[in-house]
Amino acid sequence: MKILVLGAGGTGGYFGGRLHESGADVTFLVREKRAQQIAQNGLQIESPKGNVTLNVKIVLATDVKPEYDVVILSCKAYDLASSIDAIRPAMHETTCVVPLLNGISHIDTLDAAFSKSRVMGGTCQISATLTKDGVVNSLLDAHAIHWGAREPSQQAAATSLGEAFAKTNVDWKVSDNTMLDMWEKVAFLSTLAGMTCLMRASVGEILATADGRTLMKRYLDSCVAIAAKSGYQPRPQILERYEKVMNSAGSVLTASMLRDLESFGPIEADHVVGFMLGKAREFGIDDTMLSVAYVHLKAYENRRAGNRLR
To answer: 185 an active-site residue?
Structure first.
């Protein structure tokens, strides 16, 4: 199996690097600056699961050829259009895309670009960043990736990718209900991102306030109801896990969106919170917390666009 990974940052660099480390045939599609870093220093990963420097294959967008079985797409939602343009030359008639973006709405965009028959579902859980020196720094001992076929024709590629990940130390799964996985994640992520960004605080700091627990529950309840109304009722064990996380006194957990916001970077406001707000209004579900969080995030984007943050 030939695998193309778009980008060699926190997500793509980590999962693609572990695949390469285990012997898989992996190529990284990167920009010129990142290509120079990797050519000079290798793909460097620092992680609780072990540090490693890898001599990996890289390719620039101008040199991509349609020779891959799977393309792992790990961009941010605001880079989706340019990422589609970048991977299009890599897609032959049977190439499948495994998208690891947050949210749901990118699936329709990818289907329109490549057809549903070539777009799997996928999610990942990792807290990793790319340092200014080009090191993939995995912050926690939690590296999970799940993907699955949305069409029967994708099952062989999904299974083959599992055989490649089976040789790594990554927590992986070929899912038999990948869209449910994605809806469960966006319900949780929208709550975590919306609340921690809105309050500019960790879960524990929010819970330590008089009404923090009530507001957190109201937000999560709305997101769970949206997923259920969309046809993807979150599983009881998943709900139990998420409720435990969102009710963990003293927790330092925040969403990566808060870190992006506090560093004055671009954020996935529309993809993670705006999408869920639209669904709440479509279904007549309580949108109070979603609407307040979304206005907060869009106001930040307006200030950022006007260069009024610093």
So the answer is: yes
